[in-house]
Each structure stands twice: as structure tokens, then as C-alpha cells.
Write a structure and sequence with these properties.
Elements (H helix, E strand, L loop, with lengths): L10 H10 L6 H23 L27 E8 L10 E5 L26 H8 L3 E6 L19 E2 L2 E5 L5 H8 L5 E5 L6 H7 L2 E4 L20 E5 L2 H11 L30 E5 L10 H16 L3 E5 L7 H19 L13 H7 L11 H17 L2 H21 L4 E5 L15 H9 L6 H6 L3 E9 L2 E9 L4 H14 L8
Parallel strand pairs: 2-3, 2-6, 9-10, 9-11
Antiparallel strand pairs: 1-3, 4-5, 6-8, 7-8, 7-12, 11-13, 12-13
Helix pairs in contact: 4-5, 8-10, 8-11
Length: 510
């Protein structure tokens, strides 16, 4: 006899549920409702007996191991393993590390969080299969911040990630380990994720190339979600060519990700390389400079780098986009309220969309409720803000912010109608010292969120944006951010490659 997993609630349990919904029933009415549950519970048990609809795992692998000591001197590796891809393809001979929010079947994943430690996925993300089908070798998982909620590199449960340019300094976040491993020369390619700048921020701090593609260009299927409308994943590399090559492999619809809007044609991004910038029109956005937290020397480096693009033949003009100064504020309710409801209350996946739900992750992640005190202060702060605003204001400001995103997107699009690219500093400052383990909460939060002003708006508006190293301040890299029209990553690659090939970015100093 097969036992049913889903059980009928007791009368007391149903009364407690009703009370939580603000409903009051007589005993007879409650009993009537309970009786009506019988057929529904039977339906749930029918579903429970069916096999789940999950993609097949194609390539053999081993769980790997967690490296220590000199093998992990920057604290950037979570797991080392070796998964060989196809015998040929665009990425044959290339090694790739995955940010540890990407599901890799049979290999541990903790997404920087103690509450998820011990979870082993049973499926591969779409991008994993694409990388392996293209001949890449996946060499492990990189440390990321606690559920990816920090622009610094000091919140992961495994410990801080150090900047290879200076030990004791931030590698940026949340794709901290990916950036550090590429910058250290340990891998040429890495996967990052970006909801507020988490590809571009560590790319800027570490002096590598990080592309946040147009929202939905690369399928997010099989990556732990934060908030559907701002979830992005993309390449982080040591060279522009590798970045473009990697995006060719990653991009395109998979039929499972609702973030992908209709048919998407994927060009050969590597065809955009070697064309030079002569004739390209670049708008330098005044409001991208001079934030209250901006480092004057870093702003100066970015202006000099943009001048170098002009020297290479680009037409550069300064423009004003006043709404850019409000972009972070528009992003904040989407990130705080949306992530609280989807990633935390919704156990990562939430409701109201069709795509791949990974029940093994939903079930394991749901245990955060019994261990909430372990959550990093950066996420605690965000969750409390999101919960307060949802309870107090009914989601009003999330809704209004999403409406305002259209105005913000329109402001950038108006400039991009006359220019090929928008340029500004990726971040207002260079890498900062890592907080001590016992640092006050104020410092932990400051070092996590102080750099978001230029990157976060483009997660909402969905424009492609890339950070490229363009100089140094006191030996620490500075990032130039190039932003393009929706689905026009190619023009960004054209300009980035010209800069990389013609300009010694390490020679631009302040």
C-alpha cells in the first residue's frame, strides 16, 4: 500500500490557518470546508507520485573538494573539481569557474550562506550545459557573498575574498570569487551574477572585464533567483575576446526562462572585435561622476580613459541625464521588497511564473527560517527594510518603482537614440579595506552598499553594461562602464576591444 505524502489538516490546524488570514468560522462551517479539502488533497498526492520534469545531466563529474591554504590564498574558491566538456567547440581548451549560485549537479553549492551549506543540486543550469557542450572544462565553484547581497567581499560564510591586487582589500561583490580568480590568473573565464552590479562591481575592483548582458539574453534557468526582473548572469574574463566568445556560447533562449522575451537572435560577438571606434558616438554622463562617496582620483582616471577613446577616433560628448541620480533609489524597492518576497519568503523561486523550479533547492533553502540569526547583516538589513515596506505600505513602493523604471529606461534610451554608447565610472571608488570580522554593523553595511550608484539602475532598465579596467589609483584598478542599447552588446565589445588593444590601462594612473 502506497502512503500519501500530503495529509489532511486537522481542524485545529485549519482554524489556525484561517485565523492567520483574518477569517473566523463556526465549528460547523470549518468542518464543511475541511470536508471539501478531501478531493484537493487527493489531487496533490497524485502530483506527488509523478516524476518531476527536470533537464538531464549530460556530463560525468565528481563532487570535488574545498581547497585550503596556499591553494586558496585569496579565499576565492568554494569547490575545485574537473568536469570535461565536449571533445570540440568554441571553448575547447578553456577553463571556467562558476559563481556558487549556479546549480552544478552533484557538486556542493552554498551561495555564500551557512543556511544553504550541505545542499547538493540535482540539475545543471542551462549555462552549465552550454559551456560543456562548447568544449569548456568547468574547474569549480567560486565563493560569492551571502545569498549575493553585498557589493563588498566580506559577507560569505566561508570568509572574506581578498583582492589579488592588494591582500586585505575588497574584491567586490557579489561575484567576488569569480573576479578574484580571473584577476589572479587562476582561470581565464568565470560566470558572475548581477542584480545590482554584482558582475561589474567586482570586475572594477579587480581590474577584469565583466559584462552584464541585456536582461534575458542569457538564460537564468538553474541559477538561484533573487528577483525575476533584475536577475542577470554573464561572463567575467581576463580579455575582451574571451568575454565575447563566452557570451556567444551562453546567449539565446532555452524555452524555460520567463526573463527571455520572445525570439532572441544571437550574433557572433567576436565579429565586433578589431573594428576600432572611429565614428562611434559616446555620451559621457555628467551625473555618473561626483557622487557624495566618489573618489576624485577615480573619476579623473575615467575621464582620462574616455578621452583616450576620443583619441582613438570616437566622438565623445558630455550629456546630462538628471534621472540617473535617482536610478539607485528606483532600484532599491525592487531589490529590497522583491528579493524579500521571492528569494526569502518565496524560498528562492516564488510564484506566478512558468519555468524551471528546482524543488531540491526550494526545500533546502526553506530551512533559513529556523536559522535566521545566521544570515549576514547585509541581507538582514535588506529583509527588514523589504518586510517593513510590504507590511506598512502594501507593496505600493515596489509597484511605483517598477512603473518609474519605464521612465528611467526612457531617459537612457533618449540618449542612446543619438549615441552608440553611454560611458561613466563603473564605481565611484576603488577597492576598500575589508572590514574586520568583528566590525560594527555600520561599517559592514557601508562597505557592502556604498558603490551601487552607477551600476544598479541598469539592472532595472535591462541595458547591457560592461566594466573594463581603465587605470589605477594607488595601484588599485579603476573601472570604466560602457552601456549600450538593448541587445547591442556588440557595440560595447567593439569599443572595449579597441581600448584594450590600443591603451595600456595600467599606465593611466593617479
Amino acid at each position: 500500500m502506497t502512503l500519501n505524502t500530503v495529509k489532511m489538516p486537522t481542524p485545529d490546524a485549519l482554524r489556525e490557518i484561517a485565523r492567520g488570514l483574518g477569517m473566523t468560522f463556526s465549528n460547523d462551517d470549518l468542518a464543511a470546508h475541511l470536508t471539501a479539502f478531501a478531493s484537493s488533497i487527493e489531487a496533490y498526492n497524485d502530483i506527488d507520485k509523478m516524476t518531476d520534469e527536470l533537464p538531464a545531466v549530460k556530463y560525468p563529474r565528481t563532487p570535488g573538494y574545498r581547497p585550503t591554504g596556499e591553494e586558496n590564498r585569496y579565499g576565492a574558491w568554494y569547490v575545485k573539481t574537473t568536469i570535461e566538456g565536449a571533445s570540440s567547440g568554441k571553448l575547447k581548451g578553456k577553463s571556467v569557474v562558476l559563481k556558487d549560485n549556479v546549480l552544478l549537479a552533484g557538486v556542493p553549492m552554498m551561495n555564500g550562506a551557512s543556511t544553504l551549506e550541505g545542499y547538493v543540486p540535482d540539475v545543471d543550469a542551462t549555462i552549465v550545459t552550454r559551456l560543456l557542450d562548447a568544449g569548456a572544462t568547468i574547474v569549480g565553484k567560486s565563493v560569492c557573498e551571502y545569498f549575493c547581497f553585498s557589493g563588498g567581499s566580506h559577507t560569505s560564510s566561508s570568509g572574506p575574498v581578498h583582492n589579488p591586487h592588494r591582500m586585505g582589500y575588497s574584491a567586490g561583490g557579489s561575484s567576488s570569487g569569480s573576479a578574484a580568480l580571473v584577476a589572479a590568473g587562476e582561470v581565464p573565464m568565470a560566470i558572475g551574477g548581477d542584480q545590482g552590479g554584482s558582475i561589474r562591481m567586482p570586475a572594477s575592483y579587480c581590474g577584469i572585464y565583466g559584462m552584464k548582458p541585456t536582461h534575458g539574453l542569457v538564460p537564468y534557468t538553474g541559477i538561484m533567483p533573487i528577483e525575476l526582473t533584475i536577475d542577470h548572469t554573464g561572463p567575467m574574463t581576463a580579455t575582451v575576446e574571451d568575454n565575447a566568445l563566452m557570451l556567444e556560447v551562453l546567449a539565446g533562449p532555452d524555452g524555460l526562462d520567463p526573463r527571455q522575451y520572445g525570439p532572441i537572435e544571437v550574433p557572433r560577438y567576436t565579429d565586433a572585435l578589431g573594428k576600432g571606434v572611429r565614428g562611434l558616438k559616446i555620451a559621457m554622463v555628467r551625473e555618473g561622476f561626483g557622487h557624495p562617496q566618489s573618489q576624485a582620483e577615480s573619476d579623473q582616471i575615467v575621464r582620462e580613459a574616455i578621452k583616450q577613446l576620443a583619441n582613438l577616433g570616437a566622438e565623445v560628448e558630455e550629456v546630462s541625464i538628471p534621472l540617473h541620480r535617482h536610478g539607485h533609489n528606483i532600484w532599491l524597492p525592487v531589490a529590497a521588497e522583491g528579493a524579500t518576497m521571492q528569494m526569502m519568503h518565496g524560498n528562492g523561486f516564488g510564484f506566478n511564473w512558468q519555468g524551471l523550479y528546482v524543488n531540491s533547492l526550494i526545500d533546502y533553502h526553506a530551512n533559513w527560517r529556523q536559522r535566521a540569526d545566521e544570515i549576514a547583516d547585509t541581507l538582514k538589513n535588506t529583509m527588514m527594510l523589504g518586510e517593513y515596506m510590504v507590511r506598512k505600505h502594501r507593496g505600493h513602493y515596489y509597484a511605483k518603482a517598477q512603473n518609474l523604471v519605464r521612465r528611467l529606461r526612457g531617459a537612457y534610451d533618449a540618449v542612446l537614440a543619438d549615441y552608440d554608447l553611454i560611458a561613466m565610472p563603473t564605481l565611484p571608488l576603488t577597492a576598500t579595506p575589508l572590514p574586520d570580522a568583528n566590525a560594527p554593523i555600520a561599517e559592514i553595511l557601508q562597505r557592502a552598499f556604498e558603490m551601487l550608484s552607477n551600476t544598479a539602475p541598469f539592472d532595472c532598465t535591462h541595458h547591457p553594461a560592461m566594466s573594463l579596467p581603465c587605470g589605477t589609483v594607488d595601484g588599485l584598478p579603476v573601472g570604466l562602464m560602457l552601456v549600450g542599447k538593448l541587445y547591442d552588446e556588440s557595440t560595447i565589445y567593439t569599443a572595449a576591444h579597441a581600448f584594450e588593444q590600443k591603451i595600456d590601462w595600467k599606465g593611466i594612473t593617479a
